[in-house]
Design a protein that fits this description.
Blueprint: E1 6-8, H1 22-36, H2 41-55, E2 60-67, E3 72-80, E4 92-94, H3 100-106, E5 110-112, H4 115-121, H5 126-134, E6 138-146, E7 149-158, H6 166-178, H7 180-226, H8 234-265, E8 273-275, H9 277-295, E9 299-303, E10 311-313, H10 315-332, E11 338-346, E12 349-357, H11 379-382, H12 390-400, E13 404-410, E14 414-422
Parallel strand pairs: 9-11
Antiparallel strand pairs: 1-5, 2-3, 2-7, 3-4, 5-6, 6-7, 8-10, 11-12, 12-14, 13-14
């Protein structure tokens, strides 16, 4: 006959906190203080792991959250007193299988008192196999709740067989109940982080898939407009030119979305090196945008008093910043307008500004600059399409370079966008 290694508890089985020892009550009081003081779930778990080991056998402590509409559980926190760890952070399992479903349904804990035997009795449980290989012999699982809604589980593990009884279960349930506020904060942050990560991955995938078809459309339309495939009328040529403009707008949009997704997901690495800032960033960016100035007959001037020293930065990322500033200046300038690029180095920093004559923006809209997907809502700017990505990306890049970014304007007359970064900074990676 197969020995039952899994035990489920009921509320009537639990010991009241009033019957805990003085030391146990002290730990509960400290948890209350840490939660009230705004301590993170990570800090509370660190404290709990150290203090719990003084009270009963605990060689490993884990927290897992449920995801995907409560269908999957993902391990988010792992603390052990041993190595190697085989069941690692990020491990996922379906909630609809195994004992975990009953824990969520009843809101009450379960205990495995012989993990080695349990893994043999349940050969499909990957987590049990990995824990058994780590030397874990007992496991205690308690539900974590937010507003009586299960959001995850809190687990203590021991290398001793039969390590957990009603007293340890009661104590851990009391821990879990007092961790509510910290659990809620961590759970919400985790959900937002997961949603943003998934969104950025989708954004990157869609943008990448659109790049080649759009480039092909632009090339074909330009070829048609040039008459390469045969002479066409003025009406047809205008139609082809409109296709080019619309496709180029979408291609620029996909480029900005790819930059945004790469920075937000950490896929773009920041490669700092000694750079001739004037030739590698300034001249290269101006060269990219110059056709836009010529198309609107914009007078472009550059003011650069003194020599621009070498700077340590990522030139490719800085070109994204300056190209965005210059292309926005061209886009939002009036025809026959003026754009002035100023570069100055002083006090160990380099300051770059792009000024343009045009509609500018009202003071009330300044707070919306440099926010993700934020578009300024003024009648003049509504006619000149923007998508609220470029300025956010520039802000992110300048932040990564240890600098600052800002803008000024007189509504109806001019706008100026500026950034400042240190001449020297240590090499680092995007977070």
């Amino acid at each position: 006959m197969e020995k039952n290694t899994l035990v489920f508890f009921e509320e009537k089985d639990l010991i009241s906190p009033e019957n805990f020892s003085k030391e146990e009550k002290s730990i509960l009081d400290t948890i209350n203080l840490k939660v009230a003081g705004g301590n993170s779930l990570t800090d509370i778990l660190e404290f709990l792991f150290e203090e719990t080991r003084k009270l009963f056998s605990c060689d490993r402590m884990d927290v897992a959250f449920i995801e995907d509409n409560a269908t999957r559980m993902v391990l988010k926190s792992v603390r052990t007193v041993y190595q190697p760890v085989l069941l690692k952070k990020g491990f996922a399992t379906d909630v609809g299988v195994g004992s975990i479903l009953k824990v969520f349904q009843t809101g009450m804990p379960s205990v495995i008192n012989d993990m080695e035997l349990h893994s043999k009795n349940h050969p499909l449980s990957d987590s049990a196999k990995l824990l058994a290989r780590e030397g874990i012999r007992s496991s205690m699982v308690c539900p974590l709740k937010v507003d009586d809604r299960p959001v995850g589980v809190f687990m203590s593990r021991s290398r001793k067989t039969g390590a957990y009884g009603i007293h340890e279960v009661s104590l851990q349930m009391a821990y879990a109940q007092r961790m509510g506020q910290a659990v809620e904060k961590a759970f919400i942050i985790e959900q937002l982080s997961t949603a943003m990560s998934s969104y950025m991955e989708m954004l990157s995938f869609v943008s990448h898939e659109l790049k080649n078809p759009l480039s092909s459309i632009i090339m074909t339309a330009k070829t048609l407009s040039s008459g390469y495939f045969g002479e066409i009328g003025e009406k047809q040529k205008n139609a082809a030119d409109r296709i080019v403009k619309k496709a180029e707008f979408l291609l620029n949009l996909t480029g900005e979305y790819l930059s945004l997704a790469g920075i937000e997901t950490g896929e773009i690495q920041m490669r700092n090196r000694d750079v001739d800032f004037y030739s590698e960033v300034i001249l290269a960016s101006v060269d990219i945008v110059m056709p836009m100035f010529r198309e609107k007959n914009i007078l472009f001037r550059e003011e650069s008093p003194g020599e621009i020293p070498e700077i340590k930065c990522d030139p490719e990322l800085m070109k994204i910043v300056l190209t965005n500033f210059l292309s926005n200046a061209a886009k939002y300038s009036d025809r026959d307008g003026e754009v002035v690029l100023k570069i100055r180095a002083s006090d160990g920093k380099i300051l770059v500004s792009v000024w343009n004559r045009g509609p500018g923006f009202p003071e009330s809209e300044k707070i919306n600059l440099f926010k993700r997907f934020s578009i300024l809502k003024t009648p003049e700017l509504a006619e000149r399409k923007g998508h609220g990505v470029g300025l956010y990306v520039t802000w992110k890049i300048i932040q990564l370079h240890g600098g600052r970014i800002w803008a000024d304007s007189v509504h109806g007359q001019w706008a100026e966008f500026c950034f400042e970064i240190p001449l020297m900074m240590d090499q680092c990676l995007l977070p």
